[in-house]
Amino acid sequence: MTIDIRDIAGIVRTHAASQPNNVALIQGDRTQTWGQLYVRACKVANALKAAGVGPQDRVAFLDKNGIDHFEVFYACALLNAVSVDINWRLAPPEVAYIVNDSQAKVLIVGPDFVPVLDAIAGDIVNAKTIVVIGGHSKFPSYEDFSNSGATSDPHAPIAADDVAFQLYSSGTTGRPKGVMLTNTNFFALIPFAAEVWQFTDRTVNLVAMPLFHIGGGGWATAGMALGAKSVIVRDVNPAELVTLIGKHRITHGFLVPALLQFMLMVPDVDKADYSSLELIAYGASPISEEVLAASMKTFKTNFMQIYGLTETTGATTILMPEDHDLTGPKRKLLRSCGKIVPGMLLRVVDSETGNDMPVGEVGEIWVKGGQVMKGYWNMPEETAKSITAEGWFKTGDAAYLDEENYVYIFDRVKDMIVSGGENVYPAEVENALMAHPAIADVAVIGVPDEKWGEVPKAMVVRKPDVEVTEEEIIAFAKQHLAGFKCPKSVNWVDALPRNPSGKILKKDLRAPFWEGRTRKVN
To answer: What domains does the chain contain, in order, with CATH numbers?
Structure first.
């Protein structure tokens, strides 16, 4: 199927015209055709317009995966507005920060997050309109809000370089950064999604990863751009996923390794029906050979590893199904994350000099191409630090290339921790912990964990003559941070190792916990 769609709004317009009665979205017992989705998106768009939302204005959305997400997402696109999906795992102060930082004019909140809204409503600055899915005593319900809009398409003019969606990455600087992804960024990925993932209008796509992640929202939207039907999972339950594959004849899915591991533990997992499956893509954190081998044996389909970042609109390298060889000469490739995707360029660079590293030597991954973000919202200095004048994006991941240009990730140049597919930036956790009255100094590092790959650990220097327990520090962190960012354990140290310029030597702190492992990421 050849598709000439240039922007996000074109996705819903095109398929509503070409396949109006075909199902676009399934969530539980609820289905929505392309025609119905378009009408709903138009109504929400006109309601947003009446609330003062214009081109490139931000609309914040806080809820788990659901049909409502897509109604709002495409409504924003029809207005040339920008949807800002907020990580619903965040603590209330973090949510308030993103709503305010994005300068969202409207905030839409799902029923599970009314307590978060109630905690932060007084702190919201720009969002004059707050809408609650399922209703609220103080704020209009999403149903009333959306039904107030006309069904006509607002047809706002859209430029290729206009921002289509803004996702927040955790902050290396201690503040989350709004990654601005344009229509061009997204549609740079579509030829690849058609050719390599083989999405078509016959695809049934499993949307199980959170839509506030590029691995959830980007994957889902790529499928929809090519006409796929999407099966939305609101609350991930491994046993339910196993059943859903056969029930809906799912062909494609993107899953993180931890979820594949949990699915393999489901009783009688090997007896379920996977005959419809064509591709399972996995990524966001490395996978063990044991889990990969068991997954390939159980699900009997093509597996493809994806490495990417929010800043690169997701998939940047891929390890193709034919490279998933568990017994033959290609087995060593399972430690790699594949080769650069079509249309993008990749270098492994000495980050001090900017020179390319020889084959087999570790440097920083730099990538360039249409998928590289426009920049960080309202952070020109951070954007300039991340993207060179020639357009190379510095990923912060350390890797080496082999003779055939396969990429092997070795470590992270930045101190980021990847826990169960979620990025955790130690600076952000350290900033929160330093507010504890008993902590004199703290460093947060990633340590190996069988379930999540790695988890945060706090190395704490206590203030003199102050008593504090590990449990108290972890509980304090949970008041200020999302659960996945909180340290799972605390080690007490007399002092943190620092270099002459005062920078904490994180590698020295990490070393004892990673001893005997082939690479410094899990």
So the answer is: 8-188 (3.40.50.12780), 417-514 (3.30.300.30)
